[in-house]
């Protein structure tokens, strides 16, 4: 999995090795031969130590028309030193493999893409010995994929569009379309790309929005940072959050909950069981009406704070939907954000009160 926006903008071409040809044909009208196979080459282009030269991603496409080397560089800002490196990469790979070489530079801002796309001339100004023409892709020439139907046609390109436009005004609409498009994939593939996108967006406003979209659990493939970093701790936190919200609902409805029973509820880590108890709590008159005849003691450990807060929020959504109150995606995102910001006991009590007394979602969001 990638760990930074820099990695994501070139690593995506390793995950989908045909994306290079599709992107250039789609954006620039450049036709590449249909490959029989595409392999990832060693990115270490060093010949003599200690001078180290390492490209981001290097692919070789093998087709009936011959081999073709494809270099993908991720560039976050203008760096004049890169010009000589790029010229070296091309000359070295062309000499080693005796085939054409194309350089693609991916950028997340237009100014850097404009800089990267300028011809690099080596030699006399009027008669250069070498001219390198990188292909630079950025927000200025990569379309903003804001239609879920178009995003579904090529999900990898939709991810590339999202990463490229991470700082543009189109980011919100692109991420909404991508989140819907991922539903056409199997859960594992969609989850991988969702987490890939999160890492690729980094600490940007778009990254915060993506995490918020994923945290509402509207999407079956949802993923988030807490779950990715420590799944076991996150799951415990989520379960404890759900159990805590159940206890608040019971107490607000005037149902006495002895301490030993509360401990048993908090020890439960089975989501289906807690949801069943919650459904019963909406009509029960005593704690016995809520719980199964036998409760199995467990061990409660307070898990990841993010999982705990989200568990509370999800239980709110269960209560609201059980009461026939629709929870639109935008409203769910607002509730999630506010609970993430304050998951204290007093705040959660207020949310629980709204969940069992509100008549519309606006009542829940008020205040």
TrEMBL record:
Protein name as it appears in the record: Transposase
Native organism: Actinomadura macrotermitis
Superkingdom per UniProt: Bacteria
